[in-house]
Amino acid sequence: MKTFNIGGVHPHDSKLNADAPVKELPVPQQVCVMVSQHLGAPSQPIVKKGDKVKVGTVLTSNEAFLGAVVHSPVSGTVNKIADVVDASNYPKPAIFIDVEGDEWEDDIDRTPDIKREITLDAQEIIQRVKEKGIVGMGGACFPTHVKLMPPKDAKAEFLLLNGVECEPYLTCDYRLMLDHAEEIMIGATILMKALDVKQAIVGIEANKPKAIEHMSEIAKKYPGVSVQALKMKYPQGAEKQLIKALTGRAVPSGKLPINVGCVVDNVATCYAVYQAVQKNMPLIQRMVTVTGPCVSEPTNFLARLGSPVSAFLDAVGGVPENTGKVISGGPMMGKAIMNTEVSSVKGMSGILVLPEESAHRLPLYPCIRCGKCVEACPMGLEPYLIASTTMAKAFEQTEKAKVMDCIECGCCQFTCPANRPLLDCLKLGKATVGKIIRARNAK
C-alpha cells in the first residue's frame, strides 16, 4: 500500500463520530463573518451598518490575485463592522449580521438534484470559482482559482484529491465522501476541465474502507478519475507527502506542487467547486466535526459560516466540566482558542474538546540528542537544530537549516521523549525567517 517515504508518526486515529449522521446546526440569532478567510491579501467590506443582506450576498471585495471574497451566510441586517479576535487570538475585522428569516439570492440553485452536465468553459469555471469565494478547505485556505491558473512555464498533469483526513478525531471529509461522492466526482471533472488534465486521483487512508469502496464505485462513471487507498501514516494528507505517495514525485525545496505537474485539492474544496459551478452557490457553509473524548455526542454538523463555537458546543450538550482545552482543528495542527465566541470560518474543519488530563503540557526535560524528531520529520529536517538556533536568535543558521520547508505538522513534538516544545519553536523560527526573507527581497 502506498505512502510517503520519509518520517511520519502513528497517532491513534480516534474517529469517534465517523458513522454518526450529519446534523444541521440551527442558524444563530447573529453571525460574525470574518472579513478575510483566506491566505493572501486582505479583503475589504463593501457593506455598512444598516444594510439588508440575503444568503449569498457579496460582503467584501478583493482585487488582488491572491485574494478571495466572502458572502453572507444568512439574511438580515448588518449590525456593525468591528474588530474581533479570531481562532489565533488576533483582532481581525468582522461583519456582524442580525438574522431575520432565511431569504436567499435568486440565482442560487437550492434543489437537491445533482447537476452533471458541465456547461462552462475553462475560463468561466475559474471566474465562477473566484466569484464564489472558494478556498482550500483542508485548512490552508489558499484561493482555489489561483491553483487553476498555473504559470505559463508549468503544466498540470495530475489533479490529486485529498480525502486522507489523517488528523486524529476529524471525520467531516469522511462523511462528505459517503454522503456526496457523486458531487465530489463532478467537482473533480470540473477542475480537470479548468486545468486541462486527463487524470485525477483521490487519495484516501486505509482506515476509511467504506469511503474507499463507495468513492471507487462512483468513480467508475467518471473517465480519468481513480481512487487510491493509502497506508495509515500521519501526515499523509500534507500536500507534498500526498504527491509523493500518489505519483512518486518529490517536490523540491522551495518549489510548489505545480513544479512537478500536480495540483492538490481537498475533497471538501472539490464539493464546494461543484456547488459554485453547477449550483451558483457561494461558500457560505461547511461541515464541521465537533468531538473529543469527553463529548457525550460527537457529531458532524453542516453549519453556516460565522456561527460561534459556543453554538456547536451547546448542540452536543455543552462544555464538559473537566474540559482543559478547546481546539479549532485537530490535536496535531489545530490551535487552542481563548473563548468559545470565536466564529466558524471557511477553514474550520473541527472543534476538539480535550479533558484536563490530556490538555496540559508534560514536564520539560533537556534534549538528549536522541534523533527521534529527525526520524519523524516528513520533510527531512533537523527539528532539534532549528529549535535551538531559534531560541538562540541565530536566525541565519535557522534559515540554513531550511526552516521554511517546515509544514508545521507536529511530528517532531509528538515523538520527543523530553517533551520539548519543538513545534512552537519551529513556528516562531519560520515566521521570523519569513519576515527576514521578505525584507531582503524588498530591497
Question: Topology of this structure?
Answer:
Layout: E1 23-24, E2 30-34, E3 44-45, E4 52-53, E5 60-61, E6 76-85, E7 91-99, H1 122-131, H2 144-147, E8 158-162, H3 172-179, H4 181-195, E9 199-205, H5 209-219, E10 225-230, H6 239-247, E11 262-266, H7 267-279, E12 285-291, E13 299-304, H8 309-315, E14 323-328, E15 335-336, E16 350-355, H9 356-359, H10 372-376, H11 383-391, H12 395-400, H13 411-415, H14 422-442
Parallel strand pairs: 1-13, 8-9, 8-11, 9-10, 12-16
Antiparallel strand pairs: 2-7, 3-5, 4-6, 6-7, 12-13, 14-15, 14-16
Structural class, from secondary structure content?
Answer: alpha/beta
Distance between the termini: 48 Å
The major β-sheet equals: 6 strands, mixed
Helix content: 25-40%
In DSSP terms (H or I, runs of 4 or more residues), the helix count works out at 14
Strand order of the largest sheet: 1-13-12-16-14-15
User: CATH topology of the largest domain, anyone?
Assistant: Rossmann fold
Rg from alpha-carbon coordinates: 21 Å
Give the count of structural domains. Answer: 4
- Write down the overall geometry: globular
Q: Mind telling me the CATH superfamily name of the largest domain?
A: NADH-ubiquinone oxidoreductase 51kDa subunit
The CATH class designation of the largest domain is Alpha Beta
Give the mean pLDDT.
96
Say how many strands there are: 16
Protein model, in words:
This protein starts with 22 loop residues before the first strand and ends with a helix. It has helices at residues 122-131, 144-147, 172-179, 181-195, 209-219, 239-247, 267-279, 309-315, 356-359, 372-376, 383-391, 395-400, 411-415, 422-442; strands at 23-24, 30-34, 44-45, 52-53, 60-61, 76-85, 91-99, 158-162, 199-205, 225-230, 262-266, 285-291, 299-304, 323-328, 335-336, 350-355. The chain contains 14 helices and 16 strands. The strands form four sheets. Strands 1-13-12-16-14-15 form a six-stranded mixed sheet, with helices on both faces. The protein has a four-stranded antiparallel sheet with strand order 2-7-6-4, with no helix packed on it. The longest helix is centred in the last third of the chain and has 21 residues, at 422-442. It is globular, with a radius of gyration of 21 Å. With 443 residues, it is of the alpha/beta class. α1 (122-131) packs across α4 and α4 (181-195) packs across α7 (267-279). The chain folds into four domains: 25-99, OB fold (Dihydrolipoamide Acetyltransferase, E2P), CATH 2.40.50.100; 122-279, Rossmann fold (3-Layer(aba) Sandwich); 285-358, Ubiquitin-like (UB roll) (Roll), CATH 3.10.20.600; 372-442, no CATH class.
